[in-house]
Amino acid sequence: MIFLDSSLLIAAADEDDQFHKRAKEIIPELKEEKFLSELIISESITGVGARLGSKQAQKVFETLLYDPTVKVIYANKRLLERAVQVYIKYDGRLSFADAVSVRIMYDNRIKKIASFDTDFDGLENITRVH
């Protein structure tokens, strides 16, 4: 199992992103079950839209939401309450959206995240694929 971060998804969509080539190499190699959250979809759509416009953002949205190989985890009150504890534990080192990602990973025993965000380095029981 692997969690997908918005930094990977934005890099894959944007040919001018410094990590575009590597993102395009990583994605086909991800054979395990893939997870992301609605917050990752939001960050990805916002990032792609700001860089490439709404039409490209819509393509990313449709790919993420309707890809049968990707499981989307939706936030609820309990998840957010538990994620704020992760946020506090790392004392603001992670954004709240990243803290939600980490909480989802812990809850689902996901030990890998595909991300170019170094904030995930050194987190307990998580390995960053980049």
What does this molecule look like?
The protein has helices spanning 6-13, 20-29, 38-52, 54-66, 77-89, 96-107, and strands at residues 2-4, 34-37, 70-73, 112-114, 127-129. The chain has a 5-stranded parallel β-sheet with strand order 3-2-1-4-5, sandwiched between helices. The two termini are 15 Å apart. The model has no long low-confidence stretch (mean pLDDT 96). The protein is globular and about 35 Å long. With 130 residues, the protein is α/β, with parallel strands linked by helices. The chain is built from 6 helices and 5 strands, in the order βααβααβααββ. The protein has one domain: 5'-nuclease (Rossmann fold). α1 (6-13) packs across α2, α1 (6-13) runs parallel beside α3 and α5 (77-89) packs across α6. 55% of the residues lie in helices and 13% in strands.
